[in-house]
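hi! just following up on the protien thing from before. the input was this:
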Amino acid sequence: MLVPISWLNEYIDLKDIKLSEYCDKMIMSGSNIEEAYKVMSGIEGIVLGKAVKVEKHPEADKLYVVQVDVGSEVVQIITGASNVSEGSVIPVVLDGGVLPDGRKIEKGKLRGLESNGMLCSAQELGCEDKVIPVAVKDGIWILEDLGFEPGSDFAEKYQTEEDVVDFEITPNRPDCLCMLGMAREAAAVFERPLKYPEIKISSETDDVKDYIDVEIKRPDLCSRYVARVVKDVKVAQSPWWMQKRLMAAGVRPINNIVDITNYVMLEYGTPLHAFDINTVEGRKIIVDVAADGEKFVTLDGAERTLDKDSLLINDTKKGIALAGIMGGLNSEIEDDTNTILIEAACFDPDGTRRTAKMAGMRTEASSRFEKGVDANLCRTAADRVCQLIEQLNAGTVVKGAVDVYPEEVKAPVTKVRKDRVNHLLGINLSTEEMKEIFEKLEMNVETDGDIMTVTPPTIRFDLLEEIDYVEEVARIYGYDNHPSTLPSGAQVASKLPEREIEDLIKDKLMGMGLNEIQTYSFVSPRGVDKILVDEDSYMRDFVKLINPLGEENSVMRTTLIPNMLEVLERNNARYIDKVEAFELGRLFLNAFKTSEGLPKEPKSLSVGMYGRDCDFYRLKGVVETLLTELGITGEEYKAVKDNNTFHPGRCASVSKDGEVIGIFGEVSYAVVEQYNLPERVYVAELDFEKLFKLCDLEILYKPIPKYPAIERDIALVVKDETESGEILKVIRENGGNLLEKAELFDIYKGKQVPEGYKSMAYALRYRDLTKTLTDEEISKPHEKILAALKEAFGASLREE
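and the predicted 3d structure came back as:
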């Protein structure tokens, strides 16, 4: 909502208030301001000129020679504008003058004739194109002759510079979408009287009932319809004062009749429309819905196809306006129109919104009706239009109005408790002080002790419950006046156990050099195709969005791996030579339902990496370290060869007590090609729910051993397909209580190892916590381990 300050001063005197102070106080009262600026500023050295003589240029068909009186002399100026005539008052830049955009004007010759300046268009003087009056949009700015002497300063005499404040009006405050609404707010904030326009029509003739009749067939869609008539209409340009205000408010002046309806709409917030009454068949207005499929041509010349729910303003034979949105081309006011019908109505917000959306159009009127218009202002707005028409000598007002108002709109009455307001706001206002605040906002207040019965103006659709009035007290009292206090109470904030484990996982992974990422839960169904998921996999059973933005965001993710690979791909495309990342996010598994029948939403952890020093063992080390930090021990790793996403020889699952926790490995070449990634990329996906269930963060104290350990290394020759995890399992099962630790430290294939076999070297540590072991004491469990390995895998010790 653009609010020109000089126009606002018509209703409340703020001339002594600086613009910055006005903005600050309005913000502190809850009015959000987008910006405050000046329009048509910086106009200097532009003088008023009066065209004395206009002739065609003898050497150019499209140029005109204009003799212009600029006070001190009559100068000759050549122009290409055809709208200048003798007597026209024009803004002129003389030789040596400068336009607002910095261009300097110098005298010169055009086709052999001297030109001593420039006649200015509105655009050249800094007007936005969208608000330039229609009459001068494509030519020189022809000004209303206000009787000033030629040569006078244009900006000073026509007071072109204007302060404008752009307010952001929220949908719940349609009362502020007008000048009087913003004046009402300012009157409450600055505690100054509000002056409403005095509506008085001095001369009326005939009887409106002889001109028009109105019938509302759908009162659920039109709660009130007021019709007034003006005859002997003279369509002309509006006076400068009205054009100036409309332009500052962002509206293009068109002609006096249209400008008056726009002016009153901006003043009262009530959209109005004017019809040529001679086009209204039967001299009757019928407010009813259209026929399904009915065609209607609006003022913009476009044909609209309506449905049976579209509200239409009809005469006895045809539709003449799309209610609350735009008039019809068949009832447009023409230059020869002499009698007009003025419509001021209140249309249903939901119905207007639905019709506007269906018709594919949104107008200034429809946007206001969609938010809500006060039915009780319709007659006032119509009378104001008639008053201005009479004031501008643009017609003769017909006496009376046809006012169809089936059921009067009344504001809801609410009881407001003083103590409740003070308690919620942390202030201490008396009942009288609160009553004064409400009355500043033009509310009717009756008090009974500390309880106030408040009736708001009917335009205040947002005031329905007690809490709404609490907000009114808060903002008019001033947010800057509220005391600053800290919340009281002895509650201690703490994290849920699940959140603590999440934070621990993130902390440990970042400590290992990985970066956390976050990706969208809305994904493309093609993601599982790219990682070669089996056709019958649960990962293909998606939760689908009803209204997706596009196919690439049409389903909810069932795995984090495609998201991780997309991030790696994006970084690789930007020449990032090494990436190690992780994501902890939620999956949406339609294949697994909750007890309420909804898709399960478990959390999952993904890890991805590529680049220098990134290999299978780096990824395995990350997984092992994370499990250790979570207190998960005794996990088992098994090779996985049937997962299409991973390389069949470089993939493993990790499990605990027979329950699979996750999978990790090198991404298969086929998947790598889908994502345009480097040759070797490694990813892991772990089930967070299982990690949380298995984690054990309890730390048990173990004393430092008093007695030394004995270490033995064994190098076993086994078949290539033998897994290290299975060997370690056999070692631990047969090592007894003396075996403290066993780990793989080398794998070798070479001359000393037969074809089809490999050498796997393990370090075994033995210790007795009660004494120092001898070689003889560890020989028995050691020999038992070797025998068990030979039996299980045909393992033999590698010879040097």
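The chain has a mean pLDDT of 92.
The CA atoms of residues 212 and 395 lie 17 Å apart.
cheers
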